[in-house]
Amino acid sequence: MAAQVEALTSATGLISLLDENERELQFYGLTQLNAVTDRFWAEISDAISRIEILYEDETFPHRQLAALVASKIYFHLGEFDDALGFAMGAGELFDLTDTSSYVQTVVNHAIDTYIARRASEASDIDPRLEAVVERMFARCFKSKDYAQVIGIAIETRRLDVLEQALVSGDTQSLLSYVQHECVDLIRSISVQEQVQELLFKVHMQFDTPDYEAVCLCLSKLNHPKKTAEILEMLVKDQNEDKILSAYQIAFDLDANATQEFTKAVVAEFEAASAAGDGASTPATQIASILRGDETLKLHLEFLFRNNKTDMNILNRTCKLLDSRQSLAHNATTFSNAFMHAGTTVDTFLRNNLEWLARASSWSKFSATAALGVIHRGQVKHGFHLLQPYLPVDNTSASPFSEGGAFFALGLIHACHGTEKVVTYLQDALVSYQGQNAEILQHGACLGLGAAGMGSGNEDIATAMMNVLFTDSAVSGEAASLGLGLVMMGSCHEATLKGVLDYAKETKHEKIIRMLSVGMGLIMFGRKQQADSMIALLIEEEDPLLRLGAVHVITMAYCGTGDNGAIRKLLHLAVSDVKDDVRRAAVTGLGFILLRSPEQ
């Protein structure tokens, strides 16, 4: 029989069998056509209507075979929707274990269609489509290809299948795979949270859960109380391994969680334990780690001991460049700051006081602010270090230097803003009046942004909004950026609405530009939740607001490699009439693909 099929030079005779009245002849014809479809599909496609008639005839006992042949023809014609429709009608005859391009393409199209239907939360999904996907899952489970099951289950939002996959294989390694390789790629924040809740549930089914992984899930779900309870439980047992595990969790949270979350954990943990009584115990050590004290200490010690800066470079630069030019002065200031960042080594500035004194206006602001970069992490001595530069008794003598000192204070406490520092800088926003007030407010806003980064502190946000509404280009620019830093990743609706409305009202280009950056920071990591704002901004006539759309896309999908975000940026990069928008769109591609250098 196989030899006869190979000897065929035309399918005309087989096609004619479909017109016979005998069911057996029609069945024979379909069987032979199914075997030669790949060779004679162009010829058979002329008779596709006859094959469809057989499929639609409910009295025909071999309807599934007719559907399979029709599906293959439509596949070769490039009509994948029709090919899938008939493949679903073929039932079990559509063999998922076949490795042919036909089966692989139709299965991929079926999964893509199912993903799209599930993502749109459609209630009328074809049961036959679900049956194909279920068979695909069953095949993967049988072959123990759990990674593929996990990928498809997450894309199709089938958490029941995801849970089954996690408990069917090496659960610990699969949990780690989902947490570190899959979760961040999920486009929908709500689905991401559902997956994290499932991971938490599966982790807690073990007799001795991996509490480090559990607390990572809780930090993503923003459950500080449960996190504090786990830390308190680990410490209370007085078991050395558990205490060490608690230390590691605290370090991980300090490194990866937001300032808002870690502060909430500290508050809950100190309330549940004796961490706040001053005695040196594991509980007080954990609270200290969560506040960042221990990490900052270690960073300072490491950077100081490994400082390899060549002072000759700075000294020669200082001598060769004309310090009376602000550009040259700033360049040297920034070089020194970055070369000595976090080392606490300010020898160059102390040895070149005469050179430093030549700074004027904003160069003086930058020179003072550079101290914050050099001494970043010196939270215990921040005020003492900057005392010579900070204003005394709310009286401003040198606004540029004092504004730079406010910024430096925020940089020293970057991401670890204590209540004392935040209150001091907030007071600075309202304590000064007159023509120099905007310079001091500029520094205070930047300092608050650095110190309160990611804290979501609404009091700080309100104070900055008040500065913004004064419509001063100098202070408003800094307030816009500081506001974005403080509310970073919060997706705070009221703040976004206020920022967008003001961006449409103000005439200051500086403020609008920085508000566009601020909106992007507020939407940092929010993925799909930012789509409505992106759609709104991208249609604006004002190019500076379209620039805001670029920044929101860039920040919302930063590091995700999301294809939709890439398409939007590529479109803006080639179609927008404004150079600034096109430039920012191309730059944004780098942020979105930063975890995929091969692309």
| Rg computed from alpha carbons, rounded to a whole number of angstroms | 32 Å
What is the average per-residue confidence, as pLDDT, rounded to a whole number?
Answer: 89
Per the principal axes of the C-alpha atoms, what is the gross shape? elongated
Secondary structure: helix percent: over 70%
Low-pLDDT segments, ≥5 res: none
Major sheet attributes: none
Helix- and strand-based class? mainly alpha
Beta strand count: 0
**N- and C-termini, Cα separation:** 49 Å
- Helix segment count? 35
- Taken as a percent bin, the fraction of beta residues is under 5%
List key phrases describing it.
599 residues; mainly alpha; elongated
Provide an overview of this structure.
With 599 residues, the chain is mainly α. Helices cover 70% and strands 0% of the residues. The protein has 35 helices and no strands. The protein has helices spanning 2-7, 12-16, 23-44, 48-56, 63-76, 80-89, 101-119, 127-142, 146-155, 159-168, 171-182, 189-203, 211-221, 224-236, 240-256, 259-272, 282-290, 293-305, 311-320, 326-339, 347-351, 353-357, 362-374, 382-386, 399-412, 419-431, 437-451, 458-468, 473-486, 493-505, 509-522, 531-538, 543-556, 563-575, 579-592.
Topology, pairings included?
Elements: H1 2-7, H2 12-16, H3 23-44, H4 48-56, H5 63-76, H6 80-89, H7 101-119, H8 127-142, H9 146-155, H10 159-168, H11 171-182, H12 189-203, H13 211-221, H14 224-236, H15 240-256, H16 259-272, H17 282-290, H18 293-305, H19 311-320, H20 326-339, H21 347-351, H22 353-357, H23 362-374, H24 382-386, H25 399-412, H26 419-431, H27 437-451, H28 458-468, H29 473-486, H30 493-505, H31 509-522, H32 531-538, H33 543-556, H34 563-575, H35 579-592
Helix pairs in contact: 3-5, 4-5, 5-6, 6-7, 7-8, 9-10, 9-11, 10-11, 10-12, 11-12, 12-13, 13-14, 13-15, 14-15, 14-16, 15-17, 16-17, 20-23, 23-25, 25-27, 26-27, 27-29, 28-29, 29-31, 30-31, 31-33, 32-33, 33-35, 34-35
